[in-house]
Amino acid sequence: MKKLLTQLKNGTPLSDTSKSDTLLLNECVSLLKEKKNIILQGAPGTGKTYTTASLAVALCNPSFTGLEDHIKVMDEYERLRQEGQIAFCTFHQSMDYEDFVEGVKPELQGEHITYNVEAGIFKQACMQANKATDHQEIDIIACIDDYLQKIRGYENRREIPTITRTSSIYVWWDAKKKTINIRTTRPRKNNKGEEYSPSQPSIEAIKKQALGIEKRNPHKDYKEAFIEAVKREYQGKEKASNKPHILIIDEINRGNISRIFGELITLLEADKRTGEGKHPIKVTLPYSKDSFSVPSNLYIIGTMNTTDRSTGSIDYAVRRRFAFITLKTDPEVIKTCIKDDAVRAKALALFKQINGDGTDEATSFIATHKAGDFDLEDLKVGHSYFLAETLEALQMKMRYEVIPLLREYIKDGILQGKEEDEKYFAAWEKGECFNPATTEKPEVSSDSEA
Questions:
Q1: Where are the domains of the chain?
Q2: What's this model's pTM, rounded to 2 decimal places?
């Protein structure tokens, strides 16, 4: 496992491990459990997004037996997504911390605009994973309900510290109400009696805040102080769950990762997480002032297109927190997936002329047109571009997907344009390979010899 971790952190291609697909998937699941964060990288069409679904299902449901059937995989993936175990998002150049972690968002209430702190995609995923608590003994909601019975009536009030621990407050519950009573322990002069309570947060709101799903937060500090008091009362009776939750980030390199994650980039490391981490860390979020950590049962799977240089590269601080798995173009997928013999033969021939076949890379279209500092594997056209059931479908893929992709590469300067390119493209549109004619040298005339 340590050898695999070292290989994949350095981007060693999966096919280089010489294992079966099932064994590789199992190893990648083991890697994800250990590292917590991985990025699937490769050229377009190598099945990165396809693979994230299989990885997520295999991790979330170890008893699932249909990993070789992608339809079954996607059915299970959707079930897990609806149950909240899998979340999906795509990074882009406009994504920022406020979208991903938390931010202040306006809300129209009647004729007035109010501003509320809203949890972003990542914070919601962490809260969802934190909610996955093993309640074999007792859960936080049951704890709150039991605690209410203990503070029923003013005579059973409790003195608890405030969230800052610089002072204390009284809390008690009137069984006729759906709120709890809170007031400072400092004596106040008023005509409303000893049991007057200026702050009365609802029990429902307290429970929502305990679960991390409360959007509006009046009396936030009082509610948090009450929840902390309940947790201290029942300390040790709540047990963290290992139920996996997955956050898939497609096109992760298209966003500014350091800006999007902000200070939370440190919390991604396995040993910095709460639950199983040896050195768990919590931070105070800038808008909500909530204490925040990343749970050990949240796993991140990113995908990255290795030819996409339109955005900033991933810096070293981010790289060392992810393991990188390279998915290569693979003609074996074409051999396996295309059932028609004639279509399969043409698809493989086109694949070989464009990408090479592993034995003769140097004469392929990509190799002879390569420019710049890209690796050959990064420029290849992925095998999914060649998967077609009929010759007409293969021609359509070549005309509207493969050729436009290669034209874009030439336009961007990552491939060199050559005189015979249009002859290649014309042949490929018909589903045929292009055979360059041998250029004959002109005969030297006797006049020129003179």
A1: 2-99+241-326, 133-239, 331-429
A2: 0.70
Residues 6+ apart with CB under 8 A from 295: 126, 129, 130, 240, 245, 273, 274, 275
Q: Give the integer Cα–Cα distance in Å for 133 and 425.
A: 57
* 409 closest CA partner among 376, 360, 363, 361: 376
Query: Residue 384 has what pLDDT?
Result: 94
* Dist. CA 68–CA 338, nearest whole Å: 16
Nearest to 288 by CA among 213, 363, 349: 213
Contact present, 270 and 6 (Cβ < 8 Å): no
Cβ count within 10 A of residue 434: 18
DSSP codes of every residue in 295-346 = BTTEEEEEEEETT--SSPPPPHHHHTTSEEEEPPP-HHHHHHH---HHHHHH
Q: What are the tokens at 95? A: 């994504």
pLDDT digits (tens, 9 = 90+) for 216-238: 777 788 888 999 899 888 765 44
How far apart, in whole angstroms, are the C-alpha atoms of residue 359 and residue 136? 58
Write out the CATH class of domain 2-99+241-326. alpha beta
* pLDDT level of residue 241 (50, 70, 90 thresholds): low
How many CA atoms does the CB half-sphere of 61 hold within 13 Å? 21
Q: Look up tokens 């992810």; give the residue.
A: 322
Tokens for 242? 């290992």
- Count of H helices and E strands in the chain? 19, 14
